[in-house]
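seq:
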Amino acid sequence: MITASNKTIIIAVAIVASLTFYFALSVFYLPDFYQSLKIPRPIPFLSEVKISESMIHFGNSFDIEITATNTGDSADHQTVSVAFLNLTQTEGFVQITKYDFPQSPFLIQVGDEIHYDYASSDDTITAQYPAIEAYGRPWESNATYHLGLKVTPEEPGRFVFFVKSVGLPHTDDLSHFPSDGLIDYQREFVKAYSVNVTEP
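struct:
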């Protein structure tokens, strides 16, 4: 017959055994298990950045068509950014004509606080020029999306815009496109494009 004191001893032994098992599991097994898990390596790639015109008269518009793919592992989050160095704002000057990304593109305005240096921390920096950012969360491996923009320059001259794509988790140099070249104020590589805007 099990007495009350025996029940207490059995429960105490069971608790000690459970705690010992949990401690051994958390110290000896789980760290090795988590370290052995493969870290995803997304590889953003912009297969096409098509500009409808290399020269326009002031007051006219031109089109940008971007095709973006993730050629690596599935990304938790992958972005395609188009930044406009000669604009003070996007409203009235940039129109989204098409997109098939899972989420809606959003606008970055001058003065907005945004992440930088491939989002390696929670630090932010102030946006120096407007941009449009399209993204997929998640962005599956080999998935391809498209973004179309109609842009009306704000003034005559050389109209410059930057394009880039970043995949997260950002594990190495293949997690961003391009992987070299110009660096913007976010400390990220970009490809520069331009259109010559002439006086009418």
